[in-house]
Amino acid sequence: MSDFPALRVESEAGVVVLTLNRPEVMNALNFSLLKAMKSEIKRLHFDPDVRVVIITGEGERAFCSGADLKERLTMDSRDVKKFIYMIRDLFTSIEQLNKPVIAAINGIALGGGTELALACDIRLAAENATMGLPETLLAIIPGAGGTQRLPRLIGPGKAKELIYTGRRIDAKEAMAIGLVNSVCSPASLMEESRNMAAMICETGPVAIEQAKYAINFGMETDIQTGLAIESSAYWATVPTQDRVEALNAFREKRKPRFRGR
Hints:
Blueprint: E1 7-12, E2 15-20, H1 31-45, E3 52-57, E4 62-64, H2 69-72, H3 77-95, E5 101-105, E6 108-110, H4 112-119, E7 122-126, E8 130-132, H5 146-154, H6 156-165, E9 169-170, H7 171-176, E10 182-184, H8 189-201, H9 205-218, H10 223-237, H11 241-252
């Protein structure tokens, strides 16, 4: 358990679950929650025992409803800029975390909530989930990566439609356009997320870290540069003890025991 009242942290068998714990405001993001998440993501980056991170929201109504607009009303323009910088920096650190991050979208995920999900590697949604980037309806634009990550994931045409209209979509449509990986019942969402995490935990830690690096940075380049990034990432796995262990386990017909070395 964590010392952050706005963020609950639970760990078991190499899987850490970060639960946004502000259900009274649909897990809206305020300065306190951003600071707690940033601190925890930084810690997880250097914890070799953590293999997968799951991010979800407390309660049955919301994953994350975005920025806390009540707090926003108390801010001057300088505070708003500071908030946008913090949330953008946090989501980038989640995207670049050296471990897979699964978003378990358990309800409403609007604005910063959808942007948080976009920063994760894999998105699993409950049937009651609602997603969208409604910022233009408030005369602003997505400011935590939505204009960049959404078109890269679902294509610019559909992303422009959703951003220009501020339209909300349900879980079924989110899956149809490739915004989420799968949809399940609300009751089984965390089980499905943990099953996905367990499958990842069966793989080599160094391999996963290098695969994520190659995909994330290769996607931002031309194919030849991307292939060079992939090659460098592959070479990083060759001298590892885990690679030798995998070959020995195959020969001995047993499950490998990976140590991230």
